[in-house]
Design brief:
This protein is an alpha+beta fold. It has eight helices and ten strands.
Length: about 270
Amino acid sequence: MSEEIAVILNSISSKWACLRSDGTLVNTSLKDETISKSKIIRILKTLVNETHVESVIIFSDLVVYRPVFDMFIFIMERVPRNLMRESFSQISNKFKESKKSFKKKKSKHINIELSLFSMSLEEGPEPVFYIPRDYDEDLIFKVCMKSLLSLQVESEGASKDMISFQPFVDLDSLGIVNTFQIKDKNARGGAFDSALTILVDYKYRAIIYENYSKIEKIFSQARNKIIRQYNSDQKYKKILQSLKDSMTSITFESIKAEDLKSEMIEQIKKLL
């Protein structure tokens, strides 16, 4: 990639330089002393907070292009606009291709350990359906109990849909619990307290907290489907699998963005 970008720049100018946002020189066709004596660094300090990615600024004998957040390209002479447009487009595509390769490389995902639907029936809290099906039954019951027992101190039970976070220290997990009610004429008070619970690895708690609003929407969709499909085990399986997949997707994207940002910065240092 470094050689390809250098070829692109050399095809339109013999006077160019690439600098990081902090002023570090990455590569140039000029001598280092030429850069140090020019006004590039001073201009760069002004442009860092004033330009967006893929912005092009044209002065009399200076063109500045920002292909990515941490990179600026300076061309110290006039360049025909058609050549400039074509060359900058090629450079932009090179960085986009590099970004895609990072995404493919970061193919890991957050481990979602359990997706559980529980109800507080006449006999007490009961796990109705869960994924995976081979999860330890004693642990299933423990998660079920902890998800629902907090409602015992509430006079109206789960009359309001709520999402809370429950730590499961001995499992090294964080529980995301959505409590709600399902109407049933056979239930005391006309409704059963219910809960949807997802267990995730505790180390991902910060990402979970940051995505609360998205998680709330995901759980809301699953909860509404559960209520509509009440008393259908086959439907529960699909709903819980969908809930698990959606949660994996949202946290996976967050991790990729965070990892990609740091890795891209390191890679940019090596470009050109």
